[in-house]
């Protein structure tokens, strides 16, 4: 599990040179945070439902039992260190959340292939992720922060697996890593509400 350092408030002063209270009292910003905390909670619930499906359907339930197999897999992990560093920066944290959503959005195709009966849930999840990403981009623009616009087509190659079993374990870890990513993103957004 990630050990999250206590998030510090200092970098907010860098936004437009605005004092902390000015931003934390901004009703639009607080509304953005509340709405997207709910959104992130919903996405986490959908990922948990897919994790249960992987457990029920593929009998892959315990991460510690799969760690040896994981070493053979080339698994991309989206970094979020900017969201739980002592030097927390909203701009870089938001950018990392968006970049990570893009990575996981593409890799969910692996899950759809493994669980064809849950394709609808995977598609809903991908739509929610795209909406969360665009909400964050919109908020960054509203705050005057630098944004990176990613191409709508997913440019990242999907992970390749040497066997069906590796494909299954890969799917397990995509969801496990995504769930940890979402927990960190959720904590970062929640931290911003308390500033």
UniProtKB/TrEMBL annotation:
GO terms for biological process: immune response; positive regulation of myeloid cell differentiation. InterPro entries: 4_helix_cytokine-like_core, GCSF/MGF, IL-6/GCSF/MGF, IL6/GCSF/MGF_CS. Transmembrane segments: none annotated. Keywords: Disulfide bond, Glycoprotein, Growth factor, Secreted, Signal. GO terms for cellular component: extracellular region. It comes from the Eukaryota. GO terms for molecular function: cytokine activity; granulocyte colony-stimulating factor receptor binding; growth factor activity. Residues 1-17 form the signal peptide. It is found in: Secreted. The keyword Secreted applies. SUPFAM superfamilies: 4-helical cytokines. Its main location: secreted. The keyword Cytoplasm does not apply. Belongs to the IL-6 superfamily. This is MGF factor. It comes from Dicaeum eximium.
